[in-house]
Design goal:
Elements: H1 6-17, H2 23-30, H3 34-46, E1 66-74, H4 79-91, E2 95-100, E3 107-113, H5 116-129, E4 133-140
Antiparallel strand pairs: 1-3, 1-4, 2-3
Length: 157
C-alpha cells in the first residue's frame, strides 16, 4: 500500500468529489501551494492511486435511463473459458461494473440500456458469444438511490 499522508488523503477525497477542481482551488482547501498540489497529484497518478479522471453523466439525458443487475452462472471455471468471458465483459461498454463473486452467481454485472429490448439483445449476444455462461438472472433497477465510485479515505490511517 502506498504511504499516504493527511494531505494526500484530503486531496483524494476532494478530487473524488470533483476532479475538475484546479490546483489553486485544491490548495485553498488543503493548505498547500498549487505547485505542491500538482506534484502530489502527479505522484498519486504515477503510483496508481488515482487511476483516471471521469465525468459522471445523467443516464436519462443521454438515453440510458434503464439499469439492470445481472447475475451470471458459468458452466466451467476453466482458465481459458473464464478469460474469454472476462474479456467480453471488459470490452462491452454497456457493462458499467462487473464483479467476480462468491455464492450462487459467479459474476454480477451492472448494465445500462435504452430499454428492456436492448438489454435482452445484449444478453442474447452474451450467451451466443460465451457458451460458458450457463444462465443468468436479471433485476431491473426501479430507482437509483445512489450512484458513485467514491471511496471513503479516512484522514488518519
Amino acid at each position: 500500500m502506498t504511504d499516504l499522508d493527511r494531505f494526500d488523503r484530503q486531496l483524494l477525497n476532494l478530487v473524488q468529489q470533483d476532479a475538475a477542481l484546479t490546483a489553486g482551488q485544491l490548495a485553498e482547501r488543503v493548505s498547500l501551494s498549487p505547485s505542491a498540489i500538482q506534484r502530489r497529484l502527479k505522484r498519486l497518478r504515477e503510483q496508481g492511486v488515482i487511476l483516471r479522471h471521469v465525468a459522471v453523466l445523467e443516464p436519462a439525458r443521454v438515453g440510458r435511463a434503464m439499469s439492470f443487475v445481472a447475475a451470471l452462472q458459468v458452466e466451467s471455471e476453466r482458465a481459458d473459458r473464464m478469460a474469454a468471458l472476462r474479456a467480453w465483459i471488459a470490452a462491452e461498454p454497456r457493462v458499467q461494473q462487473a464483479f467476480y463473486v462468491t455464492g450462487e452467481a459467479d459474476f454480477i454485472l451492472v448494465v445500462t440500456a435504452v430499454d428492456a429490448e436492448a438489454y435482452e439483445a445484449l444478453m442474447a449476444r452474451l450467451l451466443a458469444d460465451n457458451p460458458n455462461v450457463r444462465r443468468y438472472t436479471t433485476s431491473v433497477a426501479m430507482a437509483v438511490l445512489k450512484r458513485g465510485l467514491e471511496l471513503p479515505v479516512p484522514l488518519d490511517p
